[in-house]
């Protein structure tokens, strides 16, 4: 990875992830230790009832760069990501999923785009070069395709995949986007991108290798929830909820 002076923050939201989180943490730590960068991993425990927090504490004993953030009851993935990103300190701030569906080594592919001047680089399953090693069930893929048309209409025209869980922000962009966000659950990705664009930050959509986890916690009802929240994002922009546009 170029520019070794950069520091990297990785935010991982986690809700009852005692089974999937250990492998993701091991792979992420191993990758970052081999990089030339200063780094931190912030695991946000979103009100888990299992051993998620204990697992993170064990890793934190071994590596001081691993940190546990928690706040009590479950609030939703959007809240957890927002909490983590507003506590991150790195020059480059990334959030990724606890199931490692998109692996940490995508950082190496994304960083050059920040050096070209992009403020936000997002992973996409729907641009040329994407590799979907394990697909979602057909009905989820269809719902996702239909939902994206709605999302582009209301919030972020031109972005083909808002929901892949691997996104990179420069520190400046993160600090000017995440504190303003309002959506606590599945529609937060759309809100983050819409606010980033409204504030004048440039977004690059890049292909990822993505492996669907059959134990995914995203229910079909979440797609309907996102469609409602997308409309709310547009209303919020018109009302000036997110502050001033660029």
TrEMBL record:
Q: Which reaction does it catalyse?
A: a di-trans,poly-cis-dolichyl phosphate + UDP-alpha-D-glucose = a di-trans,poly-cis-dolichyl beta-D-glucosyl phosphate + UDP
Q: Which UniProt keywords apply?
A: Endoplasmic reticulum, Glycosyltransferase, Membrane, Signal-anchor, Transferase, Transmembrane, Transmembrane helix
Question: Record's CDD domains?
Answer: DPG_synthase
* Any GO BP: protein N-linked glycosylation
Compartment(s): Endoplasmic reticulum membrane
Specify the pathway.
Answer: Protein modification; protein glycosylation
Q: What is this protein called?
A: dolichyl-phosphate beta-glucosyltransferase
Domain spans labelled Glycosyltransferase 2-like: 9-174
Extract the Gene3D superfamilies matched here.
Spore Coat Polysaccharide Biosynthesis Protein SpsA, Chain A (3.90.550.10)
What are the EC numbers? 2.4.1.117
Q: Which GO terms describe its molecular function?
A: dolichyl-phosphate beta-glucosyltransferase activity
The UniProt similarity line reads: Belongs to the glycosyltransferase 2 family.
The enzyme's main class, written as a single word, is transferase
Q: What membrane topology was assigned to this protein in its record?
A: Single-pass membrane protein
């Amino acid at each position: 990875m170029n520019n070794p002076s950069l520091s990297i923050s990785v935010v991982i939201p986690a809700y009852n992830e005692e089974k999937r989180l250990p492998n993701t943490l091991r792979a992420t730590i191993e990758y970052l230790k081999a990089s030339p960068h200063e780094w931190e991993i912030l695991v946000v425990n979103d009100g888990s009832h299992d051993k998620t927090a204990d697992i993170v504490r064990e890793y934190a004993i071994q590596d001081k760069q691993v940190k546990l953030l928690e706040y009590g009851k479950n609030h939703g993935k959007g809240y957890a990501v927002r909490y983590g990103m507003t506590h991150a300190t790195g020059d480059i701030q990334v959030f990724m999923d606890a199931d490692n569906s998109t692996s940490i080594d995508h950082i190496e592919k994304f960083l050059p785009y920040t050096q070209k001047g992009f403020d936000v680089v997002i992973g996409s399953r729907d641009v040329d070069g994407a590799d979907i090693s394990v697909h979602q069930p057909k009905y989820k893929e269809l719902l996702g395709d239909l939902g994206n048309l709605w999302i582009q209409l209301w919030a972020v025209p031109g972005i083909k995949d808002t929901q892949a869980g691997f996104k990179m922000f420069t520190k400046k962009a993160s600090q000017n986007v995440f504190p303003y966000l309002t959506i606590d659950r599945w529609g937060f990705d759309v809100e983050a991108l819409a606010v980033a664009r409204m504030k004048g930050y440039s977004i690059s959509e890049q292909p990822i290798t993505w492996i669907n986890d059959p134990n995914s916690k995203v229910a079909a009802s979440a797609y309907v929830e996102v469609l409602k929240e997308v409309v709310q994002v547009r209303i919020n922009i018109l009302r000036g909820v997110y502050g001033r546009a660029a």
